[in-house]
Amino acid sequence: MSGAARDLTGELLARLRAERPRVHCITNAAAVAYTANVLLAAGCIPSMTVNPPEVPGFIHGASALLVNLGTLDPLRAEAIDVAIRIARTDGKPWALDPVFVERSPTRLGLARDLARRHPAVIRANRAELAALSGSDGGDAAARLLARESGAVVVRTGEVDFATDGTREVEVAGGHPLMALVTASGCAATALMAGFLAVETDRFLAAAACLAFVKAAAERAGATARGPGSFVPAYLDALYALDPQDFGDRIASP
Ligand SMILES: Nc1ncnc2c1ncn2[C@@H]1O[C@H](COP(=O)(O)OP(=O)(O)O)[C@@H](O)[C@H]1O
Ligand SMILES: Cc1ncsc1CCOP(=O)(O)O
Ligand SMILES: [Mg+2]
């Protein structure tokens, strides 16, 4: 499994760099520029418009959509509704990042509604997954949410976990400095939307993206002196990594 998945990570990365999918991101104010830079470094094209009347045009020409709830406001809430409607009509994959749902009942309610609108992937940290699933956020909860929503559910952390309700992978490695850079998770979910644009098997797309992010973070962490120098090193690693650098980091749990 791990060897095949590693080969696929390289293949999907090559596809990403060749096809340069545009990922339309409706994301939070803290994440906009970093997310755009991560997408560009990896080989995608970002667009970040949240003005509702412009959103349909941006989605029509895009390859995938990111919906991130980090700084929800009325404008973004409307943009998200419009964007998901158009993405579903156009048959484009979209990824949900339910940032801080554990801190706001309003946001949790919205995230649960959105989870029923067929996201291809839901990517969350453990606290967010726990809130969304009303449980401890463990593997069983991820599996159940994947079966209920039809999404691939990804829980990130020191070790990442992904499941489509049947298949499961763990991805280890990366670097703890990831957790000290705001929008690390937001940008990873955006990148996952990019992988969804080049691979129809959403589980394999998610697993490949996790392996790529862990490998790039590990390389960046080897030279970084703290969060400040980690960021440019991480962008450089996303830009420069080759398939032989991935290692066997994808494993069955
Ligand atoms: N302790 C850690 N060691 C290695 N990688 C980590 C660690 N914590 C988080 N990451 C990585 O940082 C990214 C963001 O994950 P996480 O912190 O769980 O999400 P969020 O930023 O949304 O809270 C993921 O790619 C994850 O693998
Ligand atoms: C700090 C902050 N506040 C609202 S959204 C946000 C960014 C969260 O980024 P991430 O979930 O990737 O850590
Ligand atoms: Mg997050």
Layout of helices and strands:
Blueprint: H1 2-19, E1 22-26, H2 32-42, E2 45-47, H3 55-60, E3 64-68, H4 74-90, E4 94-97, H5 105-115, E5 121-125, H6 126-133, H7 139-149, E6 152-156, E7 160-163, E8 168-171, H8 184-198, H9 202-223, H10 227-240, E9 250-251
Parallel strand pairs: 1-2, 1-3, 3-4, 4-5, 5-6
Antiparallel strand pairs: 6-7, 7-8, 8-9
Helix pairs in contact: 1-8, 1-9, 2-8, 2-10, 8-9, 9-10
The site of adenosine-5'-diphosphate has 15 residues, from helix 8 and helix 9.
Q: Could you describe the 3D structure shown?
A:
It is a single chain. This protein is 53% helix and 15% strand. It contains ten helices and nine strands. It has helices spanning 2-19, 32-42, 55-60, 74-90, 105-115, 126-133, 139-149, 184-198, 202-223, 227-240, and strands at residues 22-26, 45-47, 64-68, 94-97, 121-125, 152-156, 160-163, 168-171, 250-251. A nine-stranded mixed β-sheet has the order 2-1-3-4-5-6-7-8-9, with helices on both faces. A hairpin with a 4-residue loop joins strand 7 (160-163) and strand 8. Helix 1 crosses helix 8 (184-198), helix 1 (2-19) crosses helix 9 and helix 9 packs across helix 10. The longest helix is centred in the C-terminal third of the chain and has 22 residues, at 202-223. The protein is globular, with a radius of gyration of 16 Å. The structure holds adenosine-5'-diphosphate, 4-methyl-5-hydroxyethylthiazole phosphate (TZP) and magnesium ion. 4-methyl-5-hydroxyethylthiazole phosphate is lined by residues 28, 30-31, 70-71, 99, 182-186. This is Hydroxyethylthiazole kinase. Its cofactor is Mg(2+). It catalyses: 5-(2-hydroxyethyl)-4-methylthiazole + ATP = 4-methyl-5-(2-phosphooxyethyl)-thiazole + ADP + H(+).
